[in-house]
Amino acid sequence: MNPLRLSTQIVPLLVWLAIVAASLVWNLALIDDQAMQMAHQQADGIFSLVKAERFRNAIHGGLFVPTVNAPGTPDRYSGVLEPESITIHGLSMTKINPAYLRQEVAEIGRGQKHLIIHITSLRPLNQYNQPDTWESEQLRSFERGAQGRLVLDDVGEGKIFRYMAPLFTEKECLRCHEQHGYRVGDVRGGISITIPAEPVFATLDSQRNSVIAIHGGAFILVALMIVAYSRGLRRQWVALEELRGSLERLVGERTAELQEAIASLRQENYLRREAEETTLRLNRELEQRVAERTAELQAANSELEAFCYSVAHDLRTPLRGMNGFSRIILDRYGTTLDEEGQEYFRRVSAASTRMGQLVDDLLHLTKVTRAEMRRTAVDLTAMAREIAIDCRHTQPERRAEFVIQDGLMATGDENLLRIVMVNLLANSWKFTVREPVARIEVGSTDHDGKTAYFVRDNGVGFDMAYVDKLFGPFERLVSFDEFEGTGIGLATVKRIVERHGGNVWAEGEPDKGATFSFTLT
Fold it and tell me: Pairing with 229, which of 23, 87, 152, 153 sits 20 to 30 Å away (CA)?
């Protein structure tokens, strides 16, 4: 059997059949319960009427009937309570007891075969009131406190409803039954009522047929929907089978291609591993060479530093001699020399002084390059204000305005950053000497997402065509005669900023000032 047919048609049909059958059984059971309730109401109504009629007769002690209708034997239990009486109209009447009246009513109902009323007791005074097995069981349950009960029974000729409820002894009943030991409230017996079941069920046949028709129609409708849906699924299944076949072929082709690609990747991976091994070997060799070259460079730097100190020491002595002898000659023999000779000696003295300053700056540049860095938080605002005070002390007669931004903080080596700020502010102080009022500004701005610190002045400025020469050692864009200096300061600034992982640059225009900016990592 096709598994798709089983899963999409037969199984849903069986499940739906089970659901409809369960619902039908449930609804038919509800209808049967409704029939039982109707029978119970009918029997209970008959019981109430019989009980009321019997109570009425008990109140009056019996009922007068024409003598011709009275039983022949005048005793208490066959029916006659009193002898004949003559009415004012001359009619002969006899009083009979309530029990006999109920017997007559029961006989009438039994003859019609549609209603049987039986008054019975576990201690009957009349053999006619002897209970059957079912009635005896109910009477015993009444003595245990049970109430009325209704059952559906099959007697061969058809189904019947049997109903029975207890009779309690009341004050009016003691007229006849007190001598038998009954007291008010005792269960004296019961009234059994039997009615045919067919008329009760017949009233619900239309409802039962309607429920069956609804369930049948619902089953057929949903079954047709299941069949239609199943056919649609089978068509989709066939399409999916075809698609799966094509996908399997495509997967086979792609698998073959993938295997070829894997083989190629394995070869490439093998070559890559060889290249990585070669790279690692070369890196180890390179690291070894770098270590060797670093050691050599450190040794060369040490030798260079020692050489610089030696040269500086060796140069200072003749330079001091040149400067000293030039001053002695000018002091002692200046009067014998003409003005040109004196000028020559003054130039020799100035040149030796400048040469000595140059040697000192070279040593300072070497020391800055090799000094150990200690990074801390540095307050550039306070530092700039201290340097500005020092500048004013060198030339107190100058008119100058320092504009220093509050809260300038940086992270770096405080001593090295002081050298940077000293050189930049000293440069601005020097190149604004010709201005009536010098203006030097220290602040910060954003540059490509980083904080850039700047020193700006309104001095002589420079031509941007020569900006690349500003930070080279010994590079000067103005003559020594105009502004003194060795050209080492900005080179020192550049070395320090680069050691901090930053950049330094300058912007300017002749006679309109210059701006020097730097960043730090």
Answer: 23
